Amino acid sequence: MSEENCCVVTCDRPLDQTFWENQYQARATGWDLGEISPPLKTYIDKIQNKALAVLIPGCGNAYEAAYLLKQGFTNVTLIDIAPALVQSLHDRFTANPNITIILGDFFDHQGRYDLILEQTFFCALPPTMRQKYVWKMHQLLSANGILSGLLFNRTFEAGPPFGGDVKEYEALFQEVFVFNAIALSKNSILSRAGTELFFEFSKNASVHVDLYNFEGITCNGCKSTVTAKYLALDGVLHVSMNTNFSEVLIVSKEKLTVEALQKVVSYDENYKIKKH
After folding, report:
1. 51 vs 77, 78, 87, 114, CA distance in Å?
2. Is the confidence at residue 77, as pLDDT, over 50?
3. Which of 96, 101, 184, 273 is 20 to 30 Å from the Cα of 69, by its Cα?
């Protein structure tokens, strides 16, 4: 088993609270570096404003948070779904007023942040949730907010982790964010050298980013047809459907109505679109 893997499962297995709690209880945390990732340390060292509201989702053992606090940051929020882990974080940071620790589902979280740091959270999610990830990140960031961190530049036989490449990520995040940087990390740890991308994306606050539930598609050909029809709508900038055809992310200049979107696919009685 690669040291990157916490286990070997397919993306069909529920990666829920029970799953992640079991990983921590069994100490099956092969992704854990035991320290802050060097690319993130370098990035944090360049940040001048220590009052930024910072969120670290799927925070794990939160080495990044510890480093932020050491560097004088005063508004750090952590969220993770595993109860045992979160309790250990409360124990570690109990005396520090500059950190908030939340037990919960990231996708239910509400707030507004200037900076969200990505470190092994994206790759821990089933690929079917990637459109939802993009939507939620855009939702949580302030108007000038930044999403930054590391993504894998490789694929895995099974996961988590789940990987990808630059082309895939650019297609996923386009129009939702402005790409300030996305390139091979120059100072990854040895075991990840050449397999990590460092990125920094700014929120595109000038667009509407909406996630919808979709029913009725059963093949990639139908997915391509529906995507093309939505892209043809006036003001639509980007359309991205997830890998099991159950959710569609639509980026537009103006707010779209569900009724208008349903009308576009009314040629097939099986197709139903609903606001997430």
Report:
1. 12, 16, 26, 9
2. yes
3. 184
Distance from the Cα of residue 208 to its chain's centroid:
18
Q: What is the dihedral of CA 37, 174, 178, 193, to 10 degrees?
A: 20
Q: At what angle do helices 83-93 and 63-70 cross, to 10 degrees?
A: 20
Cβ neighbours of residue 25 under 8 Å, at least 6 residues apart? 84
Structure tokens that stand for 10 in this block: 């397919």
> Is residue 243 over pLDDT 80?
yes
User: CA 195, CA 21: separation in Å to the nearest integer?
Assistant: 27
Nearest to 32 by CA among 63, 56, 55: 63
Q: What is the DSSP string of 141-172?
A: EEEEEEEEEEEESS--SSBSS----HHHHHHH
The angle that helices 17-25 and 83-93 make with each other, rounded to 10 degrees, is: 60
Q: How far is CA 192 from each of CA 64, 100, 107, 195, rounded to the nearest angstrom?
A: 18, 30, 28, 5
Q: How confident is the model at residue 14 (pLDDT cuts 50, 70, 90)?
A: low
What is d(CA 141, CA 247) in angstroms, rounded to the nearest whole number?
Answer: 21
- Output DSSP code: residue 128: G
Give CA 80 to chain center in angstroms: 13
Q: What is the pLDDT of residue 236?
A: 98
Q: What is the pLDDT of residues 28-60, one digit of tens each?
A: 666 667 899 999 999 999 999 999 999 999 999
| Single-letter residue type at 113 | Y
- The confidence score (pLDDT) of residue 95 equals 87
Q: Are 48 and 199 in contact (CB under 8 A)?
A: no
Q: State how far the alpha carbon of 145 is from the alpha carbons of 4, 142, 177, 205, 242, in Å.
A: 30, 5, 10, 9, 25
